[in-house]
Specification:
2 copies of one chain form a homodimer.
Chain A (H helix, E strand, L loop, with lengths): L9 H9 L1 H15 L6 H11 L5 H12 L6 H24 L3 E2 L2 E2 L1 H4 L2 H21 L3 H24 L7 H26 L4 H28 L2 H4 L5 H4 L5 H8 L3 H12 L7 H11 L2 H19 L7 H15 L3
Antiparallel strand pairs in A: 1-2
Helix pairs in contact in A: 1-17, 2-5, 3-7, 4-5, 4-9, 4-17, 5-7, 5-8, 5-9, 8-9, 9-10, 10-16, 13-15, 13-16, 16-17
């Protein structure tokens, strides 16, 4: 398998362009709420992450969905900022948990400051996100987002327990992936619809869209971590291997591994004893069992599912852009 | 100054007895919401803290206030559990930040498990607390609690910046104390009133009561850390000194310190170089400048302020019990 990571990110840029005013309004809100009269460390740490410019895919879902339902208020900015704050808080706490060294191409916050700051500033952003959603006054929205926050944290704990253990099944892995990643994509799309007055059936479709899109997005990300190009992805390939993360391609390779191969994975992932040449060996084993091809095919299926879910939504150029975005994340996996 | 820590905790026990049914209902709710189908680590870590039996002073405020306004629903159980979850989450994250070794007379969670678990389980409890408050459907309640959560986190960050620096002023210290401790006492009392339909003026009085009570409670706690009796307080005296915490008695002693004394505090608190006999020396310096007596008098003033605030509340035995409890926390400081 080869990955053509040079495919143009046009669908992403078109969407960002169409949402430009909304994204700017959201950015202003984010900056405003990161301020702290007494504790300058908060805007410092938070800005480090926000300015590094994550792709803001999650809040873009909220904004696009609200707009395609013709929403004219300002609560979608609050909700988009809520979603981005929850995501950022999770990244800060993840860095403590993973002892991560790089985040969005920069040294992670816990290397620049320390674990304490990452924990506390994460807590602050998390609390701020709840304030923002309360300001919308919409109980259904708060219900979705507070459930999602609990699901995120639960999945993180579950991942911690499963972490680096070869006994992790594909089923368990997918449950963690859904809770850790897809749940927030799903909530982001859902609350955009709720705030704009979508019907129950449409909200259900948005939930399905977000879930499937999130899964496709994450599997693609995990594949690119092994097979992507550093220049395009902004990440050194093999990061997940070095950090002993069990992602789908590896889990699939392990499921088909003979005794000798299992010993390799046990040493490199479970015990974390890695040496030169191990990454290349890992890539070969993943290829040998078609693990990457299978993972790619699954990502494509989820992407198709996401696009199907969009069909009952109102006919709108933003709907088409979401469709193209859901396709784009797997098109890269040539 | 001597501290008679043997004064009976009768006001506390009377209140707990009067609220017994409510406390049991709250405990059931807490246990129920700590469950996790997939991640058994969550109930394990959380139960370690909850079973250690904090005094549950904060949720008792919520329950007592709701009851004294004649509340008959069940939302006060949800709100009391919310308050206890927020408090417990804060303790878990505090342990990571303080590198604490003991919590409620047991080894702290991060020693038994690890920092990762403390961070993630704290996040989970925090998210659960938001779910619980959303279930009440009361926007004013959510407004108060989400603001309080942000204030807590902000004050923690502020404390981190001020941490162990002799430049910390009394004014800065009191701001941190109010945000870190009194804000949750205040919110606990306030939401008990809101959910029970108290008037705006009464809610304002509850806020004042909680704030003043929380300040008195914390100053008393900080004094007991130096002058209390291990058997009664359940803590080894001098913990705050060993952990280089700048509490009110120390800040007052430093404000009046000569050059030699400042050097002592700089070495023991700022640089953390402590040796045998230092605690005794610290106690003597605190006594020499009447720092403990002054701190005690301030605690008493806040306690009186708390009791005054209760006056406009309905005449009720629970109101009298809250009055006695606010008195009790400083009566110990003989």
């Amino acid at each position: 398998m080869s990955l053509d990571t040079y495919v143009s990110a046009k669908p992403y840029h078109l969407l960002a362009e169409a949402l430009q005013d909304d994204l700017e309004a959201m950015d202003r809100l984010i900056r405003e709420r990161m301020q702290s009269r007494d504790a300058p460390l908060i805007p410092e740490v938070a800005a480090h992450l926000v300015d590094a410019g994550g792709k803001r895919v999650r809040p873009m879902l909220t904004l696009a969905v609200a707009r395609l339902f013709g929403y004219r208020g300002e609560d979608h900015h609050r909700l988009a900022a809520t979603v981005e704050f929850i995501h950022t808080a999770t990244l800060l706490h993840d860095d403590v948990v993973d002892e991560g060294r790089q985040r969005r191409g920069r040294p992670s916050a816990n290397l620049l400051w320390d674990n304490k700051s990452s924990v506390l500033v994460g807590d602050y952003l998390f609390a701020r996100s709840f304030q923002l959603m309360v300001e919308t006054g919409s109980l259904p929205v708060m219900d979705v987002l507070s459930q999602t926050a609990a699901m995120l944290a639960e999945s993180e704990v579950l991942q911690l327990s499963a972490s680096a253990s070869l006994a992790t099944t594909e089923e368990m892995h997918m449950r963690i992936l859904r809770g850790k990643t897809a749940a927030l994509f799903s909530a982001a799309a859902e609350v955009g619809g709720i705030v704009a007055g979508a019907t129950e059936r449409q909200v259900e479709a948005l939930r399905e869209f977000g879930d499937a899109f999130g899964i496709a997005f994450q599997i693609a990300d995990d594949l690119l971590d092994y097979f992507g190009d550093a220049e395009t992805t902004g990440k050194e390939p093999g990061n997940d291997f070095r950090e002993r993360k069990l992602t789908l391609p590896v889990i699939k390779a392990i499921a088909n591994a003979g005794a000798e191969e299992r010993a390799f994975w046990r040493r490199t992932i479970e015990r974390g004893e890695q040496k030169d040449g191990d990454l290349e060996q890992a890539l070969e084993l993943i290829a040998r069992h078609d693990a990457a091809v299978e993972a790619r095919d699954e990502a494509r299926e989820w992407s198709a599912k996401a696009r199907d879910a969009l069909e009952i939504l109102p006919d709108h150029e933003l709907r088409d852009m979401l469709h193209d975005l859901a396709e784009f994340v797997v098109v890269r996996l040539a």
